[in-house]
Specification:
This protein is of the alpha+beta class. It has a five-stranded mixed β-sheet, with no helix packed on it. Strands 4-10-9 form a three-stranded antiparallel β-sheet. Strand 2 and strand 3 form a beta hairpin. The longest helix has 17 residues. The protein is globular and about 55 Å long. The relative contact order is 0.16.
């Protein structure tokens, strides 16, 4: 079964997110419920405190290698600026086959994605984001774009302004703040030009912006999707050379609770969109913590520790690192 155990009760809004994220794309795993053959069984996980790494995800029954443990939908996504008109503006699915890129014309892979995008696009399409986007492009920034989209979602009433408060924030250095303040000013000015009512923008303070950005920085997943055609493969190869192979980034709630291990027992899989599946890499015992690898596990220990320390703010003490491998 799926259960959540926190030190303090999470708000009803966040409990709804957890249920939506896990069950909206759930597949039947484990023994089926004969009394309700349509409804899938809950994922075999629980979220509770670990002894040393905050919250973690644990197996509630034995899980076999290769098994899909659960699926999840993102709370917020955003395409990479270099792919802005090449992937679905909502789910990040690649365009199929040859396609002409029309600047300013966002692509939606389905009517469903177009409809769901109204959760943010109703506000976003009214604004001029050229200065904000250019600022992010010139500095190689991606997370401020996700904050912008989340702000639009709040203004549309799709999510609560404290929707990410349940996630762990990144440690911010003092030298980061001036750039964040500059980003915030650009964002706030763009919203003001849309003539959004003051009461709708009450939440949009510098403190809110920095708080959300700190959580997105450490919890966002970089999404790279398989290439569908030879042309896409060539384009992806070019992007890899320029270090921009990702179609975008996404923040999930439950996958963000998975702790790191340089020799993980689970991994995250994207097939053709930002919807994600968590799969077991080996047999897992009941009560065992489920862990993913945040970085490229093929790197040596010095490189892994440097990236984890500078990018995620912790020193890894997993068995692989302790062995010096």
């Amino acid at each position: 079964m799926f259960s959540v155990a926190f030190r303090r009760q999470s708000p009803p809004y966040l409990r709804r997110i957890l249920c939506f994220e896990l069950f909206s794309t759930a597949t039947s795993i484990g023994p089926s419920d004969k009394s309700d053959p349509i409804r899938p069984d809950p994922p075999p996980i629980r979220i509770s405190q670990t002894s040393s790494a905050g919250r973690g995800v644990f197996a509630t029954r034995p899980i076999t290698a290769g098994e899909t443990i659960h699926s999840a939908k993102p709370l917020v996504t955003h395409p990479s600026l270099s792919r802005l008109y090449e992937v679905c503006y909502y789910c990040l699915r690649r365009k199929e086959g040859k396609h002409d890129v029309v600047p300013g014309l966002y692509y939606f892979c389905s009517d469903s994605c177009r409809e769901k995008s109204m959760a943010f696009h109703e506000v976003e399409r009214r604004g001029d984001w050229s200065m904000f986007n250019e600022h992010c492009r010139n500095r190689g920034l991606k997370y401020p774009l996700m904050v912008k989209r989340l702000a639009c979602m709040v203004m549309c009433g799709a999510v609560s302004s404290d929707g990410l408060d349940i996630l762990q924030p990144a440690l911010l250095h003092r030298e980061m703040l001036p750039e964040m303040e500059e980003e915030f000013k650009l964002l706030k000015n763009a919203f003001k030009k849309i003539n959004i009512a003051d009461e709708v923008m009450t939440f949009l303070s510098k403190e809110w912006y920095i708080n959300v950005l700190a959580r997105i920085r450490i919890n966002a997943f970089r999404i790279e999707l398989p290439c569908g055609s030879y042309e896409d493969l060539l384009a992806s190869a070019v992007a890899l050379v320029s270090d921009d192979a990702a179609v975008g980034n996404a923040v999930y709630i439950v996958p963000s609770f998975y702790n790191h291990d340089c020799d993980p027992n689970t991994h995250i899989v994207w097939v053709d969109s930002s919807d994600v599946k968590i799969k077991a890499l080996r047999d897992i015992e009941e009560g065992e913590e489920l862990r993913i690898c945040y970085i490229d596990a093929s790197m040596n220990i010095e490189a892994r520790q440097k990236i984890l320390s500078e990018g995620f703010g912790f020193h890894c003490n997993c068995p692989r690192c302790l062995s010096g491998e």
